[in-house]
Structures are given as structure tokens and as C-alpha cells.
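re: ur question from yesterday

yeah so i grabbed the chain u mentioned. its 230 aa long if i counted rite. heres the sequnce exactly as i have it in my notes:
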Amino acid sequence: MARKRLSFRVRDDLLSRIANGRIPAGSKLPPEPELAEEMGVSRPTLREALRSLEEDGFVTRTSGAGTYATHRPRLRNNLDVNFGVTEAIRAAGMEPGTSQSAVHTDAAADEDAAQLDLREGDPVVRLERVRTADGRAVVFSVDVVSASCIGAAELSSMPLDGSVYELFERHGTSVEHGVVSVEPARADRALAKRLAVKTGALLLYLRQVDYGREGEPLLLSHEHHLSEAF
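ran it thru and got these C-alpha cells back, copy pasting raw so excuse formatting
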């Protein structure tokens, strides 16, 4: 158990180096004996940390070639078999909740417009929520939908822990699959305040685009997770 806790700290240290560029994307990590000595841990502990990073897509490991930091790890998931935030919190044995919620309409920025197949400046509705686990803020999420699909009034009337997917179903549209990208990030002042952490704290940033039956993009989600929360 002690080694496992230590491997988590080693994992976070390495992930921090990847996030701040000390280990650039695509670069090769030092050999295991050298890296273990540098970090003051045993090779088995280091291997556990590297295995965890590999499972999450932050490094790739090839026998005989070494370990490399990845270029913006990407996971492709089917929503039928993957947990959402609420399910992930419950699976960790904690009680999910929502402490803050806000809805507003604005013009789609270039990147969001591209992800949702809209024109830049088209109206979109944003649902911002702080998700909690046992009362502790662990995720700040922003769900973005075209204003022509779901209006601000509908999102505002949704329960704090309500599902945007269910709103789509009420409109006769079902979300069939999603594509997720995951990368390390640092909390700026606004995120630090929302998640009650220090500015610069290590986070995981998830961006997911959910698609309908015909492959049309329906929902864009931006999520910042506390890296050690669950």
C-alpha cells in the first residue's frame, strides 16, 4: 500500500513535468534506472507510475525503445460503456453533487464552432457546473450546445445534477458516441477559485464531442478534473 501511494506521487510528479514542458511531448524519458535514482524511488515503484501514465495515454512504452511522452493523448469512447462524472464519483465510493451552476448564451468562438460544425459567431448555450464528491469540488464542467438545438431556458430549468443527454432525448435526438481528448493542465486563478485549489495546481483537462445517429456533433464538453480526486 505504501509503495502504491508513493507511485501516485511519482505519477503526479511526472505528469507535472509533462504539463509544464519539462518533459516535452514526443521526447524520450530517461532510462528507468536513471529516472528512479533521480526521483529517489525503487524501479518497481517507478514502473507502477509509468504504467498508470501509459494507461491514461500520457506516455507510450516500447520494449527496447524506451518511454516517450505523447502528443496530446486521445481516447475514443462509446458512451454506452463509459462513465460520466456522476458515475465515476459513485464508482469511487463517494456521493456526487453540484455546488454551482450557471447558464448563458453567447457567440461561438472559432474552436467551439469548428467542433460543433457551426459558423463562428453562431449562438450557443453554455452550462457551467462545479461537480462535487462528498461535498468537495472536483470537476468544473462547461457543456456547449447550439442554441438552435437546446435553449437557455431549458438548460436553466434542468435540475443541478440533470443530464444534457436527457434533454436531447426529449427532442427526439439520441447521443450515439463521443470522442474524448485528455491532457494535463494547470489551474489558472478562475479555475483555482472554483475548485478551491492553489493557482497552478495540476488538473486533467477533458474535451469531449458527442455525436448523433448521423454523425452530427451535438454537444461539446470541457471538463477540468482534480488529478487525484477519483
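noticed a couple things. Residues 72-83 have pLDDT under 50 and may be disordered. also Strands lie at 59-62, 66-69, 74-77, 96-107, 123-133, 136-146, 177-186, 202-211, 217-226.
anyway ttyl
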